[in-house]
């Protein structure tokens, strides 16, 4: 079982990894309307100066924007990922579930110092066992056929 310290570390690591890979994540979730992204699921790190980011983590996982953040932890014992656009596509649904699984796995096993270094290629490498996720990333032009990260598109 996890204790509250482990859960807090995992949430902080998720916020860190999302911040470091935000442009890729936006492309993954198919969000192109920045208004809806910032209105319904703004990044937890929005408006925080880089030099104060780590010190601001307790505030970023709190009630700063209410529940309208990419990683919402306002409900007890629940982590809600609010970034995904609705879909009926089986591949997109499976890829989304696998992506959350990969990110939570990384968040719960890495130290904060390790999470601060996670880049998109690291996320791809952790995703390799998930064929639907990799196929979806290829389709979204986030990774090439050889498993190498591609540059994110400007949204």
Helix and strand sequence: HHHHEEHHHH
Counted by DSSP, the helix tally is: 8
| pLDDT < 50 runs, ≥5 residues | none
Please count the beta strands (DSSP E, at least 2 residues each): 2
Q: Pairing-aware structural class of the strands and helices?
A: mainly alpha
Taking the sheet with the most strands, its summary is: 2 strands, antiparallel
Spatial strand order of the main sheet: 1-2
- Shape annotation: globular
Rounded to the nearest angstrom, the distance between the terminal CA atoms is: 40 Å
Q: Mean of the pLDDT scores? A: 85
In what range is the share of β-strand residues?
under 5%
- Helix fraction, binned, reads 40-55%
Radius of gyration: 15 Å
Q: Could you provide a short overview of the structure?
A:
This protein is mainly alpha-helical. The chain is built from 8 helices and 2 strands; from the N terminus they run H-H-H-H-E-E-H-H-H-H.
Structural description of this entry:
The chain is mostly helical and 155 residues long. 49% of the residues lie in helices and 3% in strands. It contains 8 helices and 2 strands, in the order H-H-H-H-E-E-H-H-H-H. It has a two-stranded antiparallel ribbon with strand order 1-2. 29% of the residues are buried.
């Amino acid at each position: 079982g996890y204790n509250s310290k482990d859960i807090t570390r995992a949430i902080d690591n998720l916020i860190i990894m999302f911040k470091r890979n935000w442009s890729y994540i936006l492309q993954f979730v198919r969000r192109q309307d920045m208004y809806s992204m910032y209105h319904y699921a703004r990044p937890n790190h929005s408006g925080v100066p880089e030099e104060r980011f780590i010190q601001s983590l307790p505030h970023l996982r709190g009630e700063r924007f209410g529940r309208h953040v990419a990683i919402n932890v306002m409900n007890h014992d629940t982590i809600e990922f609010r970034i995904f656009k609705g879909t009926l596509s089986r591949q997109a649904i499976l890829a989304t579930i696998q992506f959350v699984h990969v990110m939570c796995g990384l968040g719960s096993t890495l130290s904060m110092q390790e999470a601060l270094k996670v880049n998109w290629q690291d996320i791809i490498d952790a995703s390799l066992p998930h064929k639907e996720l990799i196929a979806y990333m290829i389709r979204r032009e986030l990774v090439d056929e050889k498993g190498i990260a591609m540059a994110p598109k400007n949204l």
